[in-house]
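Q: Hi! Curious about what Transcriptional regulator looks like structurally. Here's the sequence.
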Amino acid sequence: MKVTIDDVAQKAGVSKATVSRVLNKNYQYISDDTKERVLRAVEQLDYRPNALAKGLKSLKTNVIGLVLSNLRNPFWSQVLEGIEDVCKHYGYNLMIANSRDSLESEEDHIRGFGLRQVDGIIVNPATGMNPLFETLSEKQFPLVFLNRKVEGVAADTVVVDNIKGSRMAVEHLLRLGKRKIAIFLYPPNGISPRLERIEGYRLAMEENGLPVHPDWIKIVRNKQECQVEIGKLLETGLPDAIFSTNSILTLEIMDALKELGLSVPKDIAVLGYDETAWAKHLDPPLTTIEQPAYEMGRVSAERLIRRMDNKTDAALETILLEPALIVRRSCGET
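A: Let's find out. The predicted structure is below.
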């Protein structure tokens, strides 16, 4: 039996008008408790209102939902270009949301996509485990995870080989004669790229017969903490190099080093992760590990569209893309 708006209203204990306002994100005069009751009822009853007149006829809206975890990171602009180009080529519109790495915000966006009857979703998962992923997977709803792996959920996943990227970074520093290499990263919090970059760093050090000092693995959240941790390194003997695992973090490290009166690469080498438009304009120009951002976006969109159009019955898989080393002068290269 088809679920109607009356069923939702009855289950939530509100009027049909209130349900309609919540569905249209008109939250004026509606309490958070009422809003949550309505959204919960919608999810439990699997209510799917008609979002567009075209959807009434074809059951297809030609809209793809995209949730990214941090639009502040310039890496995502290139990923977005790849997704947009594929969507335009195949005649799909794109609905973009930014979770700001908030699980609650991510859940709200995905529920909103469901209410608008998007044909599929690409998501760069926020920190934590979103229960909606399991629901989408169980219903075989077209879903692609981007740049982060989600354990226990059956879905196509497009990521970069982060272990290889870290190994390439460390091995480049070793070729330049660096032996005391510190790694800086944001709190891992179960996020697969961060964990894999630590693993690649450990493997490269161990394979080259070098110790992995716990004090050289620095977990930081901002520039102030970078400065504190670099200060601690100064007290015990400055390392030869810092391997930064994030483009925004690299800027924070460079600022912290400058404020401490340290020169790159004269006093210490810095190697970054994620090629950006500004990396070559830094002083000195930044040596970095490039992720194929545009390709990541393109591949994820093509994979999703093939699922949505039933053009593939291939098994779900994790697609692993290759990183590359961009050599400039921040590590003392000549």
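A: A fun detail: Residues 51-58 have pLDDT under 50 and may be disordered.
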